[in-house]
Design a protein that fits this description.
Blueprint: H1 13-26, H2 40-49, H3 74-95
Length: 112
């Protein structure tokens, strides 16, 4: 079953919270880049349930994703963890994310 592509609403309060969390975790304002990926459930969640999914990834372009020499910088892991924790705290406090059926953090690149 094919699903349409998904695009984040850059003006949503979720995106604003994500940008603040990324800036807090990485110490620099994120650069938003449209990137493709094949995660069919994201389109299904939107089409079938009306649920938006926020995808955030902490890797660098040079990490060689899905290649034999794929790697991930430990510093990015810690920064990403800090950003995800801040986003989760923000969500529970002000965005009522805990009441949402889905809250996922995984897939936009951060460049600083």
């Amino acid at each position: 079953m094919r699903r349409p592509a998904s695009v984040c609403d850059l003006s949503s309060p979720y995106m604003a919270a994500a940008k603040r969390a990324i800036q807090s975790g990485f110490g620099t304002e994120p650069v938003l880049i449209r990137e493709g990926g094949s995660i069919p459930v994201v389109g299904s969640l939107k089409t079938l349930l009306g649920i938006d999914t926020l995808l955030l990834g902490w890797g660098r372009n040079g990490d060689n994703l899905h290649s034999p020499d794929e790697h991930f910088h430990l510093d990015d892991f810690h920064r990403g963890r800090a950003a995800a924790q801040r986003l989760a705290r923000t969500g529970r406090r002000s965005l009522r994310v805990a009441a949402s059926p889905v809250f996922q953090v995984t897939g936009c690149r951060v460049r600083g």
